[in-house]
C-alpha cells in the first residue's frame, strides 16, 4: 500500500483522473434524464446562483471578515463555483428520483466536489500525496521527553570550521529524526499560541557525545497552522534526507504558532493585535534554550517561513537580529499587511503611521545597516503578486549591507516554491550555521 499512499495529488495521472470524473459527473447531473419539471430553467438558475454565491462569499471573506489579505485566485473561484453548482444540481434533481436515484445524485455531487478539490489542491499543493490527504502518512509524534534525554558530552565545531568535520556518528545512532508536539508558553508576551512542533535529527538523539546543532525556527502562512510544514511541506522527509547525507546532522527545527488561530493575523509584531514579535523573539528562544541542548549565538540561529511567514522571517531578521543571525524569506510580502498599509496602520497601530514605520523592515533598513546578517530571498517564477515584492525586499536587504542571496523557483504562490525554497537552501543554512560546508 505504500506506493498507493505516495501517489501524487499535484502531478501525474491521479489528479487528472479525479478531475475528469468530476467533470463527467457534472455533465451527467445536467444532461442525463429523468429531468425534474422545468429543468431547462432550473439548471441554469442553479448554476448562475452558485456563481453569485461563490463570488459574494469570496468578497465577504476578503473584504468584510478579512480572513485573507489577498484575493482568492480566479482559477480557484471557478472550481469552487463548479463544486457548489454540482451540489445544487444534485439537490434540484431529488424530487423526481427514487431512492437509487438519490444515491446516484449524491455520488455524482461527491465526484464533482472531489474533482474540483483536486484542481484547487493542484494550485497550492496543500496535500502533495494521497496519503497526506487521507491522513495515513503524516508524521507520527512522540513525547519530547522520550527523545530529548540529557547528554553526557557534547561536540562543537572547531574554530573557523564545521561540525561535520569533527562529528563521527556512532553505529547505534537512529536513521530517522523525530517529531514532537509541544506547548511554548507566552511567558513574556502574553501571546496565546497553539501547539508547536519540534524536529530532532538523528544526531541529536545521541546522548554519549551529542553534537550541538543549529536552530531553525519555521513559521507557516496565513491562514495556516504550524502543522502545514509537516503535511504540505513534507518537512520530515526533507530533513531526514539531508541528515542521511550529512552523518545524521541537520538543524533542530522548531515550528511555533505565530497566529493564535488559523485566520488571525497579528503580523509578527507587537501591536494591539497581540505581542507576536516578543513571542517569537523572546518566548520561543527562551523555551528552546530551557528545553533543548542546541548551539548558542545568533550565528547558529535561523528564522524562515513562507508567504506571511516569509514576511515574518524578514521581520525577525530586521527586528530581532540579536537572536536570529540569518533568515530565509520564501514568497514573503514587502511589508506586514492586513491588505493595505492604511488598513494595517489603522488595525494594528490605531492610525499611528510612525509606530508602524519603526518596525516595518523596509523602513528600518533605510536608516540601519545589517552587515552581520545573512539572508535568502525566494520567489516563484509565476507568482505575479509576490515575485515583484521579493525583488524589492532583496534590493532593500542588499542596500542595508546584508549578505543576501536571491533565488527564483519554478512555480507560483504554492508549495512547489515554499517546500523547494527551504529544501534547496538547507546547504546554505548548514554553511551559515557552521554545520557543514556541503
From TrEMBL:
Entries under InterPro entries matching the protein: AB_hydrolase_fold, Esterase-like, Mycobacterial_A85_antigen
Transmembrane portions of the chain: 12-32, 39-57, 77-94, 99-118
Gene3D superfamilies recorded: alpha/beta hydrolase
GO terms for MF: acyltransferase activity, transferring groups other than amino-acyl groups
Species annotation: Allocatelliglobosispora scoriae
Name of protein: Enterochelin esterase-like enzyme
Keyword terms of this UniProt record: Membrane, Transmembrane, Transmembrane helix
Tagged with keyword Transmembrane: yes
Pfam families the UniProt entry points to: Esterase
Superkingdom of the organism of origin: Bacteria
Amino acid at each position: 500500500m505504500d506506493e498507493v499512499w505516495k501517489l501524487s495529488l499535484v502531478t501525474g495521472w491521479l489528479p487528472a483522473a479525479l478531475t475528469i470524473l468530476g467533470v463527467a459527473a457534472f455533465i451527467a447531473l445536467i444532461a442525463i434524464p429523468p429531468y425534474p419539471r422545468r429543468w431547462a430553467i432550473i439548471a441554469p438558475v442553479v448554476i448562475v446562483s452558485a456563481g453569485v454565491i461563490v463570488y459574494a462569499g469570496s468578497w465577504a471573506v476578503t473584504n468584510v471578515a478579512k480572513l485573507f489579505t489577498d484575493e482568492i485566485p480566479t482559477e480557484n473561484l471557478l472550481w469552487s463555483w463548479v463544486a457548489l453548482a454540482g451540489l445544487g444540481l444534485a439537490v434540484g434533481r431529488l424530487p423526481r428520483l427514487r431512492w437509487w436515484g438519490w444515491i446516484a445524485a449524491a455520488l455524482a455531487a461527491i465526484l464533482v466536489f472531489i474533482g474540483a478539490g483536486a484542481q484547487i489542491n493542484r494550485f497550492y499543493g496543500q496535500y502533495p500525496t494521497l496519503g497526506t490527504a487521507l491522513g495515513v502518512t503524516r508524521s507520527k509524534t512522540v513525547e519530547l521527553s522520550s527523545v530529548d534525554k540529557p547528554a553526557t558530552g557534547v561536540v562543537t565545531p572547531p574554530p573557523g570550521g564545521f561540525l561535520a568535520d569533527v562529528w563521527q556518528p556512532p553505529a547505534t545512532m537512529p536513521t530517522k529524526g523525530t517529531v514532537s508536539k509541544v506547548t511554548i508558553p507566552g511567558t513574556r508576551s502574553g501571546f496565546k499560541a497553539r501547539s508547536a512542533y519540534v524536529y530532532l535529527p538523528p544526531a541529536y538523539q545521541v546522548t554519549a557525545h551529542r553534537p550541538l546543532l543549529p536552530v531553525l525556527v519555521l513559521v507557516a502562512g496565513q491562514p495556516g497552522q504550524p502543522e502545514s510544514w509537516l503535511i504540505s511541506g513534507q518537512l520530515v522527509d526533507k530533513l531526514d534526507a539531508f541528515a542521511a547525507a550529512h552523518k545524521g546532522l541537520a538543524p533542530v527545527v522548531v515550528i511555533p504558532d505565530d497566529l493564535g488561530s488559523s485566520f488571525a493575523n497579528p503580523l509578527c509584531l507587537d501591536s494591539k493585535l497581540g505581542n507576536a514579535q516578543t513571542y517569537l523573539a523572546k518566548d520561543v528562544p527562551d523555551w528552546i534554550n530551557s528545553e533543548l541542548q542546541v548551539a548558542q549565538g545568533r550565528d547558529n540561529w535561523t528564522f524562515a517561513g513562507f508567504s506571511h511567514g516569509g514576511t515574518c522571517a524578514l521581520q525577525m531578521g530586521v527586528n530581532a537580529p540579536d537572536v536570529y543571525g540569518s533568515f530565509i524569506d520564501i514568497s514573503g510580502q514587502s511589508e506586514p499587511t492586513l491588505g493595505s498599509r492604511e488598513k494595517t496602520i489603522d488595525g494594528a497601530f490605531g492610525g499611528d503611521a510612525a509606530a508602524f514605520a519603526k518596525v516595518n523592515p523596509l523602513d528600518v533598513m533605510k536608516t540601519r545597516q545589517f552587515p552581520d546578517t545573512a539572508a535568502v530571498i525566494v520567489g516563484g517564477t509565476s507568482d505575479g503578486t509576490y515575485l515583484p515584492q521579493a525583488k524589492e525586499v532583496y534590493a532593500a536587504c542588499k542596500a542595508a549591507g546584508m549578505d543576501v542571496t536571491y533565488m527564483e523557483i519554478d512555480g507560483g504562490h504554492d508549495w512547489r516554491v515554499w517546500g523547494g525554497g527551504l529544501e534547496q537552501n538547507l546547504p546554505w543554512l548548514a554553511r551559515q550555521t557552521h554545520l557543514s560546508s556541503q
